[in-house]
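To start, one record:
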Amino acid sequence: MSAGGAAGYGLRGTGQPSPRVPVSAATPTGAAPRFASRPDLDPPRIQVVDLDAGASSGVVLVTPSLVPSARGVDEAEAIAEGKGQAGVMILDRRGELVWFQPTDGLATNLEVQQYRGQPVLTYWTGKIVDGIGYGKVVLLDGAYRTIATVTGGNGLQADLHDFTLTPQGTALVTAYTTRAADLRPVGGARHGMVQDGVVLEVDISTGRVLHEWHSLDHVGVDETYASLTAGAFDYFHLNSVSLDDDANLLVSARNTWTLYKVDRTTGEVVWRLGGKRSDFAMGAATNFEWQHHARRLADRRLTVFDDAATPAEETQSRALVLVVDEATRTVTLDRAYTHPAKLLASYEGSVQVLPDGHVFVGWGTEPYYTEFDASGSVVLDARYPTNVQSYRAFRSPWTGRPASAPAIAASRDLVGGLAVHASWNGATEVASWLVLAGDDPAALEPVATLAKAGFETAMSARTTARYVAVAALDATGHELATSTAVAA
């Protein structure tokens, strides 16, 4: 493992200028992550603490926001301190910004999924009340255009916790509803109220609900480890749903410490893994508490993020890879991944096994994401600002070519040169920038090039032209898109 040093949004590399005219990469002043070409964007500053050459390829996808206990702070002050706007964000391996979109509400679960045979970005946005989300899921294509939204169905709103696309063009959506229940098994009233965890399978093209599963119909309140509270009791707390390897459902319930295999058609529970009524013998170090993000792997192993809090049951959270033998009903530990700082996540978190065997972990309320190699060594470790979290974190291949044009800002410097700032929010194929200038905005000529250096590339060129624009070039020198011309 080698130290990669600090990499923040404000850092820019030194590009090699074209021989056409002298061009230099400008050095940013100040620590605030603000871009001259996109002053509307002010995302959190990410610091890469460790970066090894062996780290996987692909972008990092996160949804930064202030942790709930910090949401009462002055938002303008938080942004000025580098905590940034809430939104959906893509980063490169060095922590440099690739794409950022502020959201009106909070956001969770930005990831790359497949829809109709094509890669898409999906994320949830909305409001969160007492740990339950009320909002919508957005699907974006490679040009960052909205191609679909899923708001829920049958009178229920899409919850923040999970959204999984299936090969059939449907989506598995988490939701909640309040229902009456007998709470005497947990010391409550006979006529009590609970938060019922709901899985909706929605046809994305029509919005029609194909299947609807309710936890209260299949899981009793006596399975909970949560303490009885005032109001509707969140005994189950559904926080992930995905397809198991036989196309049935794999459901995680934080408050019962259990993973459930659910028949996708009948809704019956096929088995329970963990918790008070486990159908499996849990091997050494395989137990988990208050867990998140259960997923089945192609080789039939299973991953889960073991928060072990809140309240704390262990001293640190773990990313678990489990070997599940359904024939013998046994579970054994393949590997557990822990952070060198012994992080204990109050909630949230994710585990992703990458194609090369590396494991990528988002630590939820703890402000880190980490990549481990196959031996368990850290090859990438990055952190958000204090009091900033991301519900999950993922690493995936992604190609983005925005439908919008590149952005430009230009001004004269003190020595008569032209200072140009160029960016293209979300573009992944840009290798260099071409500066175009002239006295007629419809007839600009190339005057300089510079290698792309971070999200925003700062350039200077000697020209007295009245107008300037920038063109984004790929690695072969092909022009991808051109900005509008602005007055110099």
User: Anything to note?
Assistant: Residues 24-31+402-487 form a domain with the Immunoglobulin-like fold (CATH 2.60.40.10). The CA atoms of residues 86 and 415 lie 39 Å apart. The helical segments are 75-80. DSSP finds one helix and 37 strands in the chain.
